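Supplementary Methods, section 5.1.

A reviewer requested that the exact input to the structure prediction be made available. We therefore reproduce it here, unchanged from the version used in the analyses.
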Amino acid sequence: MRFFVTGTAGFIGFHLARRLLQDGHDVFGFDGMTPYYDVRLKLARNAILAEFPAYQFTEAMLEDRSTLDGALAVARPDIVVHLAAQAGVRYSLEHPESYLSSNLVGTFNLLDAAKHVRPRHVLVASSSSVYGGNTKLPFAEIDRTDFPVSLYAASKRATEAMAHSAAHLANMPTTCFRFFTVYGPWGRPDMALYKFVDAIEAGRPIDIYGQGRMRRDATDVGDLVEAIVRLADAVPASGQSAGEFDSISPVAPWRAVNIAGGRQVELMTLVETIERAVGRVAEKVMLPMQPGDAVETYADNRLLRALTGYVPSRPIAETVADFVAWYRDYRASTAGSTANSA
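The structure derived from this sequence is encoded token-by-token as follows.
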């Protein structure tokens, strides 16, 4: 099939595009290469994808509507996967304006443009952050998402609302998948796993927020990609429910799906796992919670299982070991540079 994937030079977009190419699909990538973190990491990912003859890439921002329209017209995609976005809860506290442009204007443009090429299925990245101030655990897709606690979360809630509107008005089957904490090789330098490994390897202290009591439903990036690939075939139809836990819309071919293993990892357990993989004990600076952070995330994954027969299951220790091996190889290949500089 023909896939149009936004954010292919990003962490998750890279892994998804590579998997699709390995499976024999045509992939049309679209990415703005923003300097949110070191662009050399994005270029390295994109260079790997460029080795596949079935990969075509357009470097542009989603806000550039004419270029986006042209790329979609060339791609004529069967499936659109929208992953490009400004990420990061903490960054949204310092640079809120970037979330309005990338996550709202960019997403609107993508959804509006997709109406004209009529893909079989549009899949849009959302986040567990949309559950906001909810205290009921595990988070289920049918729970309310009306209380975001960061602008990042609000932008993802708006993404879901815009996607539902587009699905209704254009009868365009759309799935919004909610990512929970995703780890793995080629990860972003602003993510906890990368920051901890980078600091421990260099002998620097690490900051532990929430006094280490935070818990996350952690997902291996390979498991996440497997779920997305399977969800591409789970095309929603309005009113056709997979069960009482289904978020399917009564007025649009739209649903939201959690992608997670339904297993929590405490922050200190993650740190200890990293220490074992690196072979060094970290110096720790214990700090209070940061504004906008959730104390814990925990996914109800019954809907994912019902739709795909699959849920993420890879142990975090294996993911961490893979990341440390990749990190060392990548640092060695870029000796003399700082892969996490802005």
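Residues 89 and 293 are 7 Å apart (CA to CA). These observations are discussed further in the main text.
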